[in-house]
Amino acid sequence: MKCFAFGLGLVLVAFTLGGAEKAQLDELTGVIRTKGVKDLSPCVLTIDGNIPRSIGLRGEGLEDIPDGSQVWVRGRLHTSLYDNRDDPNPAMDPLQWNIYMDVADWKATAAPFERPAGGGGDGGTTAPTTQASQEDDWHRYDDPRLSADERKAVRAATEAVLDAGRPRPDFDRAFRYRVDQRNGDWVVTVWRVHSFKDGKPRFMPGGHTGVILDSDYKVKSKIPGR
What we know:
The chain is mainly beta. It has helices at 148-161, 171-174; strands at 2-6, 10-16, 26-33, 43-47, 54-58, 70-83, 95-108, 175-182, 185-197, 200-213, 219-224. Helices cover 8% and strands 44% of the residues. It starts with a strand and ends with a strand.
């Protein structure tokens, strides 16, 4: 784990990935800001946690991510000293440290602190970052990989996110699912499929709903994506 301190005691924590090839790469999760950014970097990540912390992001395609999306990013952290003391009207503090990440890859996530399978400290590989293919990570409505109880949870969660004023869609084309159990409850993340490319679903960041079900598959709460 690496820690970087700057400003008035502000501490930024990043996880260092295992493996020789990834020794210099770090990962973070948070909400990306791509509009109205006042920073030396084109995008800013508001890092997950109770204490507001932000870091600049640089890399190809980041500006195309919808503003306010929950994401996981991986890349190399850098520091630079911003010195603009010669400017009589500086737009920023004239002398400050700038910390930013050159992003190598990223992935939309369903919840704060979520890290993609194989993308964490175990040194595994991450899923494709284009969001065009997540079939291995997500399940279909009646996916045979799901148990009978998990399929019940998926059905209940699907009914919870449907719009009663619209026709019922083809669930296999409209949604993908992730199912977990926490403290006796079912936690189902329902992602809306934006489109298909080469037969594989494409997802829009923030286009998900977390549905919490009790042990009898009754809805306790719904958490919309952001």
